[in-house]
Design brief:
87 residues, four-stranded mixed beta sheet, SHC Adaptor Protein, single chain, 6 strands
């Protein structure tokens, strides 16, 4: 199971995130992650009215995310291949 939350964005006129910024949680739910291919996850994203879909990648067993980008294309986040920034 995984829990996620939708948070309130910063005002558009703010350039820096204040040190004491604490976004309001407006929704929270728990779901069971399904194991599937990235292609199947993209199909799920296209059939659901949601900008993001979280799943367990059948190829590497890691939690992945596919999402609809503002330009209409699909983005894919695979943390197992993402380099962690140092510093």
């Amino acid at each position: 199971d995984i829990a996620y939350a939708v948070m309130e964005p910063l005002a558009d006129d703010e350039e820096e995130i204040p040190e004491n910024f604490a976004p309001a949680i407006v929704a929270e739910s728990t779901v069971t992650l399904r194991t599937m291919s990235v292609a199947s996850a993209v199909i799920e994203l296209d059939t659901k009215d949601s900008p993001v879909f979280v799943f367990r990648n059948a190829g590497n067993d890691h939690v992945n995310i596919v999402y609809r980008r503002p330009d209409g294309n699909i983005g894919w986040i695979d943390p197992s291949t993402t380099k962690v920034a140092q510093g």
